[in-house]
């Protein structure tokens, strides 16, 4: 996950490869609650691990369910008729799929609870559900604004007598989650008599109700419905665990990969695993919409394969009521269409994680599109020519779907990068979304940015480069480590670190199995992190690095570090030899005395003994050798910026490089946030 302030996506090329998607959020949280209400133990497989499922799992634990987790598996011991632990105060983040159904279920189970979440959750309506529950006889109070969480369910003495004889009426035109909440809670009281729910107004998002009904059936509750307006929960209902249940991959998440395939998929295209054409999720019908726009899609029970068909995409005019979440992806696909696309019947966007109609309109305009918005529609006209595209900073409104769908703007024909603010907001449903995207897109290496930091030993390159990579979410190449590893491997192979063994060392290097993992370095399965960090190892590295064949043997390996979304490379010849076209090159220096002092402190801090004058002499010897060797001597690239860090802190050095990097970016600053 990219837990950084912003993520810059370089211009993306084609899309090919396969991706396994995380479990559906809607299914995950429904299944967790149904398992909690059931008799017996349920093993939930392929569960989504995300913010919203986290709050649900925590809540269930607080309520007294047995919850054991192991990655994407959870074992839930259901309450099976027992009362939940009460009183309890539940924090439900911004998870509507936890707030609404838990409110209904707890109101019908009895006890005293407070349910709240983050500020945005307290702006998301729940009044219609509370009205329906109050109509039944439940005691629920608003703790803040009327009609919105936080709430208190005040039934310390148990559930009051409920009026179940007549139909329970609930509005269906604000959020289908109210109806879902009632459908999952009312079986708890449909013991002696059947319970009927009547929807007032047109039911929106029917597909989500379809999911609810399918899952209820898996847990032993067979709900009938009449034209999606009247739902009948049979008498004698009783939740029963199905034993093991698999969560389908999220069909809404699939939309980004379907779109990537439609926009840039070259044969054999993008393969999506975990969800297929027979999915129970409504958003699978995004496939139809994408086909209308020109995508070529095939699929089976558990997979989809997408390639570009018509190009440019075809503009559409579509009622999107049946795919409210995935339709946001269509709004971004519209940027690649041959005319104006209109998405209608999307009023529910206004009460989601943010006002999504306003958010999409604002951000699409930043990219150069012309956008018209109404209460329940959005109309998008793409930039008329590549030159009309803008390098935008996309504000993401703490809305995972805004972040994910705007990543698709990076396929723009102008070759512009796209900045996504707060990329970690994708954690709501797809924590590794960007990693998954990068795994199926191909980009010409020269479009992947590299920041080079070259300079003498102890100038702070490693420290500054690692901090930059961390801040920007880029990969990090510690090229010095490769020479240190080479020297270590050569010594172990009994080779002398000199010209006589040059060919053998070079041959050896080509077959080394080197792995960098977090801060650790592995050679042929052995952790050699400490072994290569001694002063002696540095000196040995300097020796092998003077051998031309060894340097050549390490070139391809160094190039392979250039991956999306970018690279920070630290060494001696990053800017001169390895990445001569890099868009930013820094030559970091500091006086020999300052560097010796830093090394001294570094060694003392590690608990090693150190001698200042010996260190200074070593360092000067290494400088001299690195600068005077015939191949790739240490020197600034012609277009490098010099940064003398003698009198600044490492933090200041990082800030200076970041400032230079920002100056080279084409982004229009965000007006939001
Ligand atoms: N600008 C700076 N001011 C003070 N100390 C620094 C600065 N840059 C780096 N250091 C410290 O100096 C030591 C050597 O830095 P390092 O990044 O290992 O250098 P290099 O990779 O160039 O050999 C580290 O302990 C680091 O924290
Ligand atoms: N790109 C690089 C990186 C390191 N090296 C050599 O490898 C040695 C160790 O590099 P390093 O970056 O780990 O060393 P420090 O600067 O951290 O002491 C350097 O002294 C250089 O001789 C190189 O020749 N080219």
Automatic annotation (TrEMBL):
Pathway: Metabolic intermediate biosynthesis; chorismate biosynthesis; chorismate from D-erythrose 4-phosphate and phosphoenolpyruvate: step 6/7. The keyword Transcription does not apply. ATP binds at residues 455-463. One of its GO terms (molecular function) is 3-phosphoshikimate 1-carboxyvinyltransferase activity. It comes from the Bacteria. Phosphoenolpyruvate binds at residues 25, 96, 124, 177, 356, 401, 428. HAMAP family: Cytidyl_kinase_type1, EPSP_synth. Catalyzes the transfer of the enolpyruvyl moiety of phosphoenolpyruvate (PEP) to the 5-hydroxyl of shikimate-3-phosphate (S3P) to produce enolpyruvyl shikimate-3-phosphate and inorganic phosphate. This is Multifunctional fusion protein. It comes from Giesbergeria sinuosa. The gene is cmk.
